[in-house]
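Lecture 7 notes: from sequence to structure.
We start with the chain below.
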Amino acid sequence: MSLQLHAQYFDPYPSLAVLPLGKKNKEVRSAGHKTERALLNRIQECLDELSLSIDERERIQSFLQLEKGAFFPVFSNRQEQIHPHLMKPESFLWNDFSAGHGIPQITEAFYTKDFTEMTKTALSAHIQMVVRDYLFCAAISLKSKSEWENIIEQSYELHPFVQLARAKREVVQAVEKMNRSSLLSLLTPPEDVAFWRHRVEIVMRPYRELPEQCGHEKQLSFDSLNEVITQTCDECKTKRMFHVKHSKVELEEEPDMEKAVKRISTIERQFNEIALKNETILNDLGNVAQWKKELASLPEILQMKKELTRYPVQPDIVKEPFLGFAEELSQADIPAERASSELIWLAGFRLPAISMLKEIRKQTVDEAKAKLEALHQGLKEAMETEPFQPEDVCIQVKNQSLSFEQVFAILNELDGTLKDKPLHLIAQLLKGRTSYQIRAQELDQTPLYGSLGRWEEKDIQKGFKKLEKEGWIEKRMKGYEALK
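Predicted structure tokens for the same chain:
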């Protein structure tokens, strides 16, 4: 609502608008009793002494939507007593009070100081501060909250350190990755590596504290003395201070830009100098990248190994050590190309095990290809040989066991009657329980009903967990899916 819908104006106090306070208080009938009139008179005298210009008065009046030259709000309760606290201008900013409910009496919306007991000097200083706050918020109100948020965001992106962080993003990310990489332990001399890590903590601190973009709701607070809007994100625990006069964002901790530019370049150069002293490691990593690129049959071979290791009776070939290395190589993250900076290149590696480098040194890529080809053929032959009999035990839970024949029967039904069924219902079905759900879905008519009658339901559930762990089935949003 506009404040003039409920504001009352009294001739002895031309600068004041008296407003009803409280949800059930809809109007001001008078200026109150002698005490209240004296308070209003004191506030009017303080405003007169401020000697505000006509433009300043009109700006506040327009912001609050008041009339008759009044620009300063005070509040009265139902007993016509003046509320002892003045309302903060933020309470009116981008806010439209409900005409039906009036102006609610919310403690946080008011200044904490009680002006009714102040000396003339203290009251004058308090009124001066409040008017300054109103003038600042009046200027802020000319734009919407979203417009200010966009202005702050754009100014943030223009901050010199933010621009440096954007320009050096690849280096910054590489430093952070390398600082946590297991490869760092291989580099020598160790004292140089230790010094580099120490410098990383100093250089990276302002980058780590830099508030990044997020989609959370932001809060704006206002400092009229310094003409600053502070934007805070409670979720990210970050804030940006925007200087309205200079249209510039200030970070919580402003880095020395000359030092920041030098430091990020120095930290990259120092690492590259260390890396170049470790030519053997660089060659090993180059070989890892070449091996992964050229050993194209890895995925197929590892899938064959996975299928064979499901069975309790496994051919010896799946225990071949080179297959373990092949699995690690397939899991390794390798940079797509060699970067000109050793820091950026090394940071692109993520090896499951450092021991991979020892295996790399034992043979050439051509020898590895020949070994993989032989393994491929051996795995193929192993898969063509039946590794089990239908009556062989597939899994065991306590004293109960499931044969391969029983497991395959269950797997087959996961695409049929057991599809999308929760585990507790599957356990009841296999146990042979009778329930409303089982009868309603006619699950008691399926071939598997009661097939595990000697099992406890909790053991059937454990059996399914074991099948999942050994790669026979996979948990979905609803029920299970057979992987064999």
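Points to note: The chain has a mean pLDDT of 90. DSSP finds 18 helices and ten strands in the chain.
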